[in-house]
TrEMBL record:
Aminoglycoside phosphotransferase domain: residues covered: 24-269
Alphabetical list of InterPro entries matching this protein: Aminoglycoside_PTrfase (IPR002575), Kinase-like_dom_sf (IPR011009), Pseudomonas-type_ThrB (IPR050249)
Lineage: superkingdom: Bacteria
Name listed for the protein in its UniProt record: Aminoglycoside phosphotransferase domain-containing protein
Any single Pfam family the record assigns to this protein: APH
Coiled coil segments of this chain: none
UniProt xrefs under PANTHER family: AMINOGLYCOSIDE PHOSPHOTRANSFERASE DOMAIN-CONTAINING PROTEIN-RELATED, SLR1880 PROTEIN
């Protein structure tokens, strides 16, 4: 974040339609993709802002990303207003994009970097790790509400900014290519992991197979549903879903599965001691309850049935990605030691194994929670 001087950052911030004059710009947050700065201005009632440099190496079409964000935030705001959300709550329920003084959603600098600005949401916080069932339930409710409010926005208007991001067939193709090349002579070290992956390839195509049969509708999904992308208030009530760069057309099972992947695991994503990888079932049930509280009204039966497929698929897919990177020489993910990607892959495959062992229990929880709403209906 030190590529730009305070003077340069203040000049960039001043290109946006903000209240007051910029008095301070400082690094903010711990994101790994975009560079984020907090902007303070002077004057009575002046707001605080977030200035971001969008990583155009990850997001090749930043214009499409910004069009998605503008469409989604405008629609969310309209839906909240239609549900008579009080004005003070509305401001903290949806991100507010600040246009440039030229009325654009982004500003390019002389080095072809893309910059954007949001209002900084005060009195909110996020957690990297879910600590309580209350937090898990609020996370589920937030992402369920996000999907529900976007049901009536034309999915055809939303760009696929990361093509094939959750396409397991394409991910496996990349793995098979890495195996064939064996650029770092590492394939012999991962025979067990490759056998595990191969044995489940057909099962993991389940969502794509249902989609190909026309049995799953394409929705507007978030595609990065880790818990720290939900802002909560001081009472741990969900306020706002953030980090909308990855909003794309997709299937609800992907969002559900990715959230559960990060919530249900009692250990770290890269845990070396595989015996520590166990499932926190109460957190799964709490997230599921919160999710259905919002999503039950629009989900089709086939979508409900696909949710556990997503729960199994997302850690499997993440393992495939880690293993592919390991075989290719660790170019994509940052590593802290030579076998870090292999360690990550092993941990994710162990999580898949645990999920498979508890699949009947997870299915029963989903059926029980959804059943509450079917009885009411």
């Amino acid at each position: 974040m030190s590529d730009f001087s305070p003077k340069q950052l203040a000049a960039l911030a001043s290109m946006f339609d903000i209240e007051g004059n910029v008095i301070d710009v400082s690094p903010f947050g711990s994101g790994h993709i975009n560079d984020t700065y907090r902007v303070l201005t002077d004057g009575p009632g002046a707001k605080r802002y977030l200035l971001q440099r969008v990583n155009h190496h990850v997001f090749k079409n930043v214009v499409a990303v910004m069009q998605n964000i503008q469409l989604v935030t405008q629609h969310l705001r309209m839906r909240y207003e239609s549900e008579r959300t009080p004005a003070h709550a509305l401001e903290s329920s949806v991100l507010t994009l600040i246009p440039t003084k030229a009325a654009e959603t982004y500003q390019q600098d002389g080095l072809h970097n893309f910059w954007r600005m949001f209002i900084l949401l005060d009195n909110t916080r996020s957690y990297d790790i879910v600590e309580t069932p209350q937090q898990a339930r609020e996370g589920g409710r937030a992402f369920g509400q996000f999907q529900r409010l976007l049901v009536d926005l034309d999915v055809g208007l939303i760009h696929e900014v990361l093509p094939d991001f959750h396409h397991i067939g394409k991910r496996l193709d990349k793995l098979h290519g890495a195996i064939a090349r064996d650029a770092r002579n590492r394939v012999h070290r991962v025979r067990d992991e490759l056998t595990f992956i191969e044995a489940r390839e057909k099962r993991m195509h389940g969502i794509l197979d249902l989609a190909a049969q026309g049995r799953l509708p394409i929705r507007i999904t978030h595609n990065d549903t880790k818990f720290n992308n939900v802002l909560l208030d001081a009472d741990d009530k969900a306020q706002c879903v953030i980090d909308l760069d990855t909003v794309m057309p997709g299937y609800v099972a992907y969002d559900f599965g990715d959230a559960i992947r990060t919530i249900i695991n009692s250990a770290a994503e890269d845990e070396a001691d595989l015996s520590k990888i166990t499932l926190n079932i109460p957190l799964f049930e709490a997230y599921t309850a919160g999710y259905f509280e919002e999503a039950h009204s629009f989900l089709m039966p086939q979508e409900v049935e696909s949710l556990i497929d997503g729960v199994l698929l997302l850690p499997y897919m993440q393992a495939v990605r880690f293993l592919t990177d390991f075989l290719e020489g660790d170019h994509y993910y940052k590593i802290h030691h030579a076998d870090h990607n292999l360690q990550r892959a092993k941990a994710q495959l162990k999580l898949v194994e645990q999920l498979e062992a508890h699949e009947p229990e997870l299915l029963a929880i989903v059926a029980r929670v959804m059943g509450r709403y079917q009885q009411v209906g």
